[in-house]
Request: fold
Amino acid sequence: MEHVTITPTMQAPAERFSGDVYLNMIEPPSEPSRLTAALVRFTPGARTNWHSHALGQVLYITDGVGLVGTRDGTVVRVSAGETVRCPAGEEHRHGATDTNLMAHIALVVGDGNGDGTTWLEPVTDQQYAEALASRR
Reply:
């Protein structure tokens, strides 16, 4: 057994997120495990860039209200206690609504070359506004 103490909260990198996003690593990738887990907190309006994961991603919502969307325009409104599974290779984005914060635990299994995440362009303000309008 290993007792891991609280990790420092870091601001998420601006090249991958819009708005104020904070994360605490729960399980950094380390051999032989390829699991990466992090608690990610989004302030109102904050969101990820478009991205995909080689082996998929699981998001467990711990607090607040958020949106998870895919390139085909599908958007789900999520709240505490809900889980979203993003399949391998699916381009998606997630974050808070404009009026509420949202926090989730992000679980990713790496592909042997890091966490297998491919980061893409930011979600535009128009795309975000459309997602909000579709889930009010």
Summary: The chain has a mean pLDDT of 94. The longest strand covers residues 57-70.
